Each structure stands twice: as C-alpha cells, then as structure tokens.
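Bumping with the actual sequence this time:
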Amino acid sequence: MKLSGKVTSGLGKASFFLSQDFYKDNFLKRCGFMPYPGTLNIVIEDDYLDRINRIKEDCTDIIKPDNDFGAVKYIHAILNDEINGAIVFPAKSQHSDNYLEFIAEMKLRDYLNLNDGDTVLVEF
C-alpha cells in the first residue's frame, strides 16, 4: 500500500519513549535500526482510515509491554521512496486514527528538510 499524507507536529511524547533502552533495543533487534528519539507525524486523509485500521488490527509484529512500558505494534515502511523505517501503533496513543507515526534512524524533519504541511509518501 502506498499513501500520501501531510507532516504535522506531534505532542512531543515519542522522544521520551524512543530514548528508553526497552524500545531502542527492541526496534534495533526487530527492525534493524536504532530509532531516532522521535516520530514523524503524518496526517492521512479519511479515505485511508478503513485500510489503516485493518492493517493495525491484523498486525502481528508487536513489542510486548513490560512493567514500565506499553505495547507497540509496528509495520516496516518506506518514506518518500528512500527512507527505511516503520510505522508504529502505540497501544497508549493520544493521536486520532488519521495520524501515522513514522520512525527511522535519523531525524527526518532535518534529513529531508520537512516542515508542517509538507506532503510525504509512505509505502508498506
């Protein structure tokens, strides 16, 4: 599936979680990269919601919770036909369903010179 969306600012909470060894180690082991401590938030159009929700529900790739941290489902993805990463679906998210959170090993806003409102392409 390939879809486009608009970059938007997030709540700033992902940086804390992705800087924790529990998540860093799990993503390194499962995805092959150490995630930058933050996500690129992408707002997608409502037309994609049914498909995204099905993918999220059917997703079997999961970092199981421990005593301190919640579960995270993830799916490998490619951003703008060049950046390997993953879309994450945290069990405890405050975002609405039309937000996707993309992780990669670098700060994507800087690496791709992205600003709020820029259109990006996600494939998974």
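The tokens above came from a reply further down the thread. The helical segments are 14-18, 21-31, 49-58, 108-111.
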